[in-house]
């Protein structure tokens, strides 16, 4: 067994891995960027080393620096978590060359699954069902047009280097194919330096159902059942659950076998996930394999009792699996909500900031995996997840009530999060019926109802408005009241405060700067400008796309009118509060 393991990641997954190491009696080595000096993963690890400046390219992605730290710390193995270097075959090989164990699959399996066209061909040869379409790259638009006719519209165009929905476009009809083809290629080039695309039949309203597998070095492969991750927003999963609402024991066995076959076909070792689509008529198709631990692994842990991260470490240390397929039993129902620093009412705009107050829910059946504490900064440098809230209960309905209860207990102040969104989904009829909730997530009017309480206006030097919470007792009954009043004026509640209450809430991080000005709700780079000066726009029309926190954020017009000013350029940086457009009239 290892005596010291380096965790090449940050945030909640680094904490998760450190916990598993601690339970195995293994020392942990954390690494961190300058932005993460006070992070929880750094505090919890046995040892910690600075990698470099905040941007991931100068810290968490810097292979040379990591290799230096690995050597200096004496770590014998590296756990990559998810994201960053987790699916980087070159990193896995560099470790191997340095005589260090990569806690993950062989580099050859990462490579095999990294190219989606190669993976589709391998899977087809292994008898794993793939979505009908091409296994070879589609070189030209003319080829695409011919093949799309054979497949039949609508077709999905996907980037071969992609995955997780990056470089995924749909052409509903022939005259939309060029846009889809070029869009997917452009995104593939941008994110993966690979403009290769392939075509698939587009399945209407499928479920995203994925199967967790574990494989040891002795040829034992087991599956831990499925997770349903159909509730997504722009290919970011928001809610996951296990078991999947539409999967019974028979289907579980069938897709479990498909997943085991897929893993065997690439000589897999460690924990991996077969992602697939379950069509409306119950057909299951392989989509791609994730060769790492996933964000949503916790729901599988809850229903099987298997500690997936511990198993990863044991397998990498050369131990055989301590159980077979017949030892795996599923019990109850688990749901995970990703608590992102995002404002669902503003089209899921990122809402970075400082977590002023933080208190996690607890009680029966509740697990919180998080990397933050009160005072932590959610920076636009990394992904926006503040915490994962996972609940378990005997069945789906009970688990739903437990999730609603835990969401109510969760106290996060200073940054806007998806808590109101999750509360609304848990209370919805669609969720109760086990639907994908796509109609809700894409409904701008519904999302607007999730708006946060109005925050005070920025200080304009004159009649500043402040918000303060008070507890009052009326006839012995306790009430919590929120008072919006003038800062310099008389105390809004008699006797409650002598001095003017201090401004407590952070300035609203979204929406218009007031009047005609459309202000940027976030810091990022202008990816695309979709209007011109002088153009007429409707309220809600797409004005521009700002790339931040690895996401493309659609910024829409806050009112109807004419674009009078448009001081933005594609590729340029914008700060939160910068004017994106001035819209006059309307
Ligand atoms: C698809 C699809 C329909 N047909 N592929 C790919 C990445 C993943 N994030 C979702 N992906 C999809 N691939 C074909 N051929 C529909 C989706 C899809 C989806 C699937 C299940 C549940 C929710 C979804 C949300 C968006 C897209």
From TrEMBL:
Residues 509-584 form the Lipoyl-binding domain. This is biotin carboxylase. Residues 120-317 form the ATP-grasp domain. Its cofactor is biotin. CDD domains: biotinyl_domain (cd06850). It comes from Solirubrobacter phytolaccae. SUPFAM superfamilies: Glutathione synthetase ATP-binding domain-like (SSF56059), PreATP-grasp domain (SSF52440), Rudiment single hybrid motif (SSF51246), Single hybrid motif (SSF51230). It comes from the Bacteria. Residues 1-446 form the Biotin carboxylation domain. PROSITE patterns: ATP_GRASP (PS50975), BC (PS50979), BIOTINYL_LIPOYL (PS50968), CPSASE_1 (PS00866), CPSASE_2 (PS00867). GO terms for molecular function: ATP binding; biotin carboxylase activity; metal ion binding. Gene3D superfamilies: 2.40.50.100, ATP-grasp fold, B domain. The lineage of its organism: Bacteria, Bacillati, Actinomycetota, Thermoleophilia, Solirubrobacterales. It holds the Pfam family Biotin_carb_C. Keywords: ATP-binding, Biotin, Ligase, Nucleotide-binding. It catalyses: N(6)-biotinyl-L-lysyl-[protein] + hydrogencarbonate + ATP = N(6)-carboxybiotinyl-L-lysyl-[protein] + ADP + phosphate + H(+). Its EC number is 6.3.4.14. Residues 490-499 have a biased composition (Low complexity). Residues 490-516 are annotated as: Disordered.
């Amino acid at each position: 067994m290892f005596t010291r393991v380096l965790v090449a990641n940050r945030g909640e997954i680094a904490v998760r891995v450190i916990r598993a190491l601690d339970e195995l009696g293994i020392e942990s080595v954390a690494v961190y960027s300058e932005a993460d000096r006070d992070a929880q993963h750094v505090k919890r690890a046995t040892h910690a080393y600075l990698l470099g400046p905040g941007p991931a390219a100068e810290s968490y992605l810097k292979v040379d620096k990591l290799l230096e730290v690995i050597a200096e710390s004496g770590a014998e193995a590296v756990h990559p978590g998810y994201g960053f270097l987790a699916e980087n075959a070159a990193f896995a090989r560099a470790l191997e060359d340095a005589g260090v164990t990569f806690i993950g699959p062989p580099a050859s399996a990462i490579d095999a699954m990294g190219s989606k066209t190669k993976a589709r061909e391998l899977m087809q040869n292994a008898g794993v069902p793939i979505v009908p379409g091409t296994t070879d790259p589609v070189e030209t638009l003319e080829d695409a047009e011919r093949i799309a006719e054979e497949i039949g519209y609508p077709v999905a165009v996907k980037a071969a280097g992609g995955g997780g929905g990056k470089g995924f476009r749909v052409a509903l009809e022939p005259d939309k194919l060029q846009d889809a083809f070029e869009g997917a290629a452009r995104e593939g080039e941008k994110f993966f330096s690979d403009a290769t695309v392939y075509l698939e039949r587009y399945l209407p309203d499928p479920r995203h159902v994925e199967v967790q597998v574990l494989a040891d070095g002795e040829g034992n492969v087991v599956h831990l059942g499925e997770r349903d991750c159909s509730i997504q927003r722009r290919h970011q999963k928001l809610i996951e659950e296990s078991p999947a609402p539409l999967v019974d024991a028979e289907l579980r066995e069938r897709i479990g076998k498909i997943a085991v076959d897929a893993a065997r076909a690439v000589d897999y070792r460690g924990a991996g996930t077969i992602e697939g689509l379950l069509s409306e008529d119950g057909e299951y198709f392989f989509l791609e394999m994730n060769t790492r631990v996933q964000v949503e692994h916790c729901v599988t842990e809850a229903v099987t009792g298997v500690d997936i991260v511990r198993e990863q470490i044991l397998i990498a240390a050369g131990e055989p699996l301590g159980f077979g397929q017949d030892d795996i039993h599923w019990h109850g129902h688990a749901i995970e909500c990703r608590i992102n620093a995002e404002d669902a009412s503003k089209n899921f705009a990122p809402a970075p900031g400082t977590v002023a107050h933080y208190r996690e829910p607890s009680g029966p059946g509740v697990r919180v995996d998080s990397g933050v504490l009160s005072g932590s900064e959610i920076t636009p440098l990394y992904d926006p997840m503040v915490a994962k809230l996972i609940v378990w209960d005997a069945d789906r309905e009970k688990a739903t009530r437990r999730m609603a209860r835990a969401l109510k207990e969760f106290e996060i102040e200073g940054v806007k999060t998806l808590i109101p969104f999750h509360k609304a989904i848990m209370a919805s009829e669609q969720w109760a019926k086990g639907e994908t909730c796509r109609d809700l997530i894409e409904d701008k009017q519904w999302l607007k109802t999730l708006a946060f309480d109005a925050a005070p206006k920025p200080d304009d030097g004159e009649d500043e408005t402040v918000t303060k919470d008070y507890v009052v007792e009326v006839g012995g009954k306790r009430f919590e009241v929120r008072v919006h009043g003038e800062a310099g004026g008389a105390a809004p509640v008699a006797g409650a405060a002598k001095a003017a209450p201090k401004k407590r809430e952070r300035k609203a991080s979204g929406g218009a700067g007031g009047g005609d000005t459309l202000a940027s709700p976030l810091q990022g780079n202008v990816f695309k400008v979709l209007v011109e000066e002088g153009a007429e726009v409707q309220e809600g029309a797409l004005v521009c796309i700002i790339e931040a926190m690895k996401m493309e954020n659609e910024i829409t017009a806050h009112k109807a009118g004419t674009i009078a000013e448009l001081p933005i350029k594609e590729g340029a940086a914008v700060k939160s509060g910068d004017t994106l457009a001035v819209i006059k009239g309307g």
